[in-house]
Design goal:
CATH class: Mainly Alpha
Structural class: mainly alpha
CATH architecture: Orthogonal Bundle
Number of helices: 3
Shape: elongated
Radius of gyration: 15 Å
Largest sheet: none
Number of domains: 1
Number of strands: 0
Mean pLDDT: 94
Length: about 70
Amino acid sequence: MKSKDLRELGPDELAAKENDLIQELFNLRFQFFTGQLENTSRLTEVKRDVARVKTIRREYELERTKHDQ
């Protein structure tokens, strides 16, 4: 998922997306440790997507506090 696409989402949608990605990451790790995961690169992709979402949520938070001052 591209950062550009994530920036189009609102704060609530980003929170939901983060929860979905964390759940997917959990499932992928479970599959990995049980030997059922065929595409191990998907783990890295999802980790990076989670980091992107967290970064964008933090930017929104900083922007909001900047405007509140």
